[in-house]
Amino acid sequence: MSNIEDYNTKLEVIKAIPDDQLKNPNSMPMRIYIQEAEHLEKWCRQDKDDLTVKGLDWTLVEDLPVRCGALCEAESKWSMQQSQRRSSAKIWPGEVSKGYNLRNELIHHFKYAFRDNSSLIKKVKAIANRSTNDGMIHGLYDLNVLGLVNRELLRKIGFDFSLLDMAAKKSRELSRKKETASFYSEDYLETKRIRHQAYTHLKEAVDSIRECGKYVFMRNTARLKGYRSEYRRKLKRRSTRRKRVPELEPGNVPETIDS
């Protein structure tokens, strides 16, 4: 099956994993984790009898390819969401600036047009005092409505009514762009959650298989190595090497060739 087919097959099971059981996948690049899981599936097949006699549920091994495919697809969807939001976040400040400029222009016109009406001036000032981006976005829509209701007062100052259409359009655009630039939107968080759930589902099988393999082949180095993470082994080896490098004390600097 393709990754998308694996994903669709597993989606209901994956989404049923509760948040309090989710595992953090940030300790290893996802592509490497998936590669290691795929290698584990191939490695352990020749040990089927040894593993199953010690209680391993062999359906976990049979299910590994589908779990890997589902995670590949979930990771791809999440990565795409991340990329889109990073791109949108780069242009967001410029879009916000345009929104504030339009809002301020409308407030300038409205204050003059409504100068003799204290009730309307109060409404305009309330919109002007909104200091957040959300307040500005909603303010553009409110100014559009306020302007349409008070056309006659605006007409007397030769107001350009196309600005009202621009305000309504800009409010909708900013609302949409804010959603696509946010890492806290429901759409993004749901995609991220499914990615974590798919990882947890795969890790459940990988951990069970590795645990059994390490138990069975504790004294068989040749077979044992296939049940350990090569990525973490290399990390541990590099960390050990760094610890062995002695720190130089002040004044204890080795001479160079040119000394």
Question: What do you see in this structure?
Answer:
- About 75% of the residues lie in helices and about 0% in strands.
- With about 260 residues, the protein is mainly alpha-helical.
- It has two domains: about 5-90 and about 185-235, no CATH class; about 90-180.
- α1 packs across α4, α4 (about 60-115) runs antiparallel to α5 (about 120-130) and α4 (about 60-115) crosses α6.
- The radius of gyration is 30 Å and the shape is elongated.
- The model is unreliable at about 250-259 (pLDDT under 50).
Would you spell out the secondary-structure blueprint of this structure?
Elements (H helix, E strand, L loop, with lengths): L2 H13 L14 H15 L3 H5 L6 H55 L4 H11 L4 H17 L1 H5 L6 H20 L4 H31 L4 H4 L5 H15 L15
Oligomeric nature of the chains: single chain
Helix and strand composition category: mainly alpha
**Termini, distance in Å?**
66 Å
Q: What is the string of helix and strand elements?
A: HHHHHHHHHHH
Specify the helix fraction band.
over 70%
Beta fraction of the residues?
under 5%
Number of helices: 11
Quickly describe the structure.
It contains 11 helices and no strands. The chain is mostly helical.
Descriptive key words:
259 residues; mainly alpha
